[in-house]
Write a structure and sequence with these properties.
Radius of gyration: 27 Å
Largest sheet: none
Distance between the termini: 62 Å
Order of helices and strands: HH
Amino acid sequence: MTAQRSDLTQQMHNSSGSFELVLSGVVLGVIGYFVDGWAGTRPIFMVLFTVLGFAGAAASVYYRYKYEIAQLNEETLALQKAARHNSNPPSPTSKGRSGQA
């Protein structure tokens, strides 16, 4: 049960970028529509806020992606280093020398 919840949570986290891209532009576009109605300047603020919403969401998704890729690269390098360290057996010349007089 816990594994299923963890998988579902991870899938929802991975899909949040698509919702962010769409909803930020739509919500800011609606806000811009009301600002245009209040200021009497249709459709300047609606278009401006929509573009800024999409641009901000795209930048957010891009930087979040870069951060996650950097984290995965660090983990991969650490695992590779640990695997190399564990796969190198001690050399035969280092064994037995300490016991000789």
